Amino acid sequence: MQRVRSSVMSDSGTGESRVGMALFRRVRSCADMVSKTKVELAKVLNRQTTFQEILKQKDEIIEDMDGKLGSPHPAPLDGYDSKKRTSALTKEHHERVRVLQNQNRFLNEEVRRLAKLRGQEHGKMRVQDSKVRSLEADIEVWKLEYISLIQSSIRFTGTDTIDDAELYLFGGDRHKDRILELLCEARKINPSLPTYEYLASGEVHVDCYGFKHHFEDDGLLLHYLCQELSQHFLSQANTFEKHQKNWLLFLKQHSKNLLGPRKELKALVRAGIPDPHRKQMWRAFVMAKVEDIVLEKGPHYYRTLCNSVPDSPMAARYKKQISLDLMRTMPSNVKFSTAGSKGIMDLQDVLLAFCIHNSTIGYCQGMNFLVAMALLFMDAQDAFWTLVAVTERYHSPAYFDHNLLGAQADQSVLHDLMSEKLPDLTRHLDAIDIEISTVTLNWFLAIFFDAVPFQTVRKWVKAVSEGRDDMEDEPCPDRPVTACGDANISKVLVSLSLSDDRRKTCEEIATETSMSRTSVFRVLTNNATN
Question: What residue ranges carry the coiled-coil annotation (predicted)?
Fold first, then answer.
């Protein structure tokens, strides 16, 4: 019985197992069918969506074509189709509006982001531009300092003439090549600058003031080019441009009264009068001093004096001496280099006219330099009134008389100043029997015309604009009187700043700076009032 029962149970278990396997296979088959059905359904749905989009596009095309065909009244539809079509169009428009709104928000955000980035980039560019301008300004300053350093390399061989000076450049032709590169670069901005090849070939260069320059020594030629480059770099500096604008603004604001606010005008004049405005300003300064004389004598007074020269005994008295001094005034200037030049003729007319105007003073050597300086920037009549102002208003009546009492008094004052400020130098000059007035007298008579480089006209401008007292009250900030470089001048001034027991003699300074004794003496006396 047990065997039969176990056999029955075994068959029953086997049957259940088979039924379970069959059910499992069927479930699996159904699952596969469901998956396939879903895939097919998805494909159908995608196809339906595609067809709907195609239909929508077709409908849009049809509507567009209807509009183009001028069918303002489409074919009427029944109520159900019309509502369905309206509903579909409404949904479509809402969807389009939503998409466009999303696009608009996105684009606005992009615009704001790009605007922010652009602002940041502009800020960076402004900073970079500022740095570039600052670096360019530094480069220009370095160029000027380099050129000044080259200028300071000039040495004097022991004589008192500048023609015997030499320029020593260490490092072979390296510095020379750099100078020529800077000159080539500067000529792109200012073509009037001379070229090295032109001057080296023996040609004569005439500068903007009419002075002729000719060099046989290569070192002095390079030194002159350095001077020209220095002037060029100074004219390109930001401070120079600002100064030019300040002058233009001042002349515009005070066109009716050029001698306007005294303090502002004084600051502008001491910084330098630009060449285009020099004639206008010098004339204003001079006429302010002689306005009463001009009103008394009349506007044609100068021409009347010139017409009376042939019959004037005073003109005949000084004509010989004036004729001797004419060609010695500015022989290196094209305006005064030949006997028949306009500059020489105007110079003679002005000097002879003044002899008639002021018979007490007449003519003394030194006046020719004053008039020639004025003629470089003014006409003959204005130069005449300049001479009148200098001799009769800026100086005392006895300054230019036959005994030069006023000028001699200034030499005594200068000697006393040197005794106080430079006692060792004064004792040294007395010991070697050098009379200071033999060197400095003409400086005072001609207002330092032939004692400083011509570009250094600020002292002359101070004399014309501020008068004698202001000119002597403050030293001119321009270059010293000699052609030596800044380094040598610095050594001289350093020696002056030492205490009395450490001050050096003229010979010691000359030995250290390679300058001649007289050159050192001129520097010392020029800075005595400091």
Answer: 90-117
**pTM check: above 0.70:** no
* Structure tokens belonging to residue 187: 């000529």
Distances (CA, A) of 200 to 127, 196, 204, 222: 45, 6, 10, 10
- In the listed set 394, 411, 437, which residue is the last one of a domain according to the structure? 394
Q: Which residues contact 474 (CB under 8 A, 6 or more apart)?
A: 462
Residue 27, class by beta-carbon neighbours within 10 Å (0-12 exposed, 13-18 middle, 19+ buried)? exposed
Can you tell me the distance from the alpha carbon of 5 to that of 1, in angstroms, rounded to the nearest whole number? 6
Distance in angstroms between the alpha carbons of the first and the last residue of the chain: 148
My answer on whether 373 and 415 are in the same domain is no
Contacts of 208 (CB under 8 A, 6+ apart): 192, 275
SS3 23: helix
**What's CA 365's distance to the chain center, in Å?**
40
Tell me, what amino acid is at 323?
S
Residue 450 shares a structural domain with residue 507: yes
Structural contact between residues 326 and 347, judged by C-beta atoms closer than 8 angstroms = yes
User: Tens digit of pLDDT for each residue in 37-74?
Assistant: 888 888 877 777 777 777 777 777 777 766 665 544 45
- Per-residue DSSP letter, 204: P
326: in domain: yes
Any residues with CB less than 8 A from the CB of 469 and at least 6 apart, and which? none
User: What pLDDT, in 10s, does the model give residues 290-323?
Assistant: 999 999 999 899 999 999 999 999 999 999 999 9
Provide the pairing of β-strand 165-167 with 154-156.
antiparallel
The dihedral sign for the CA sequence 432, 437, 438, 444: positive
Is 162 a residue whose pLDDT tops 80?
A: no
Residues 528 and 484 in one domain: yes
Question: Does the pLDDT value for residue 530 go beyond 50?
Answer: no
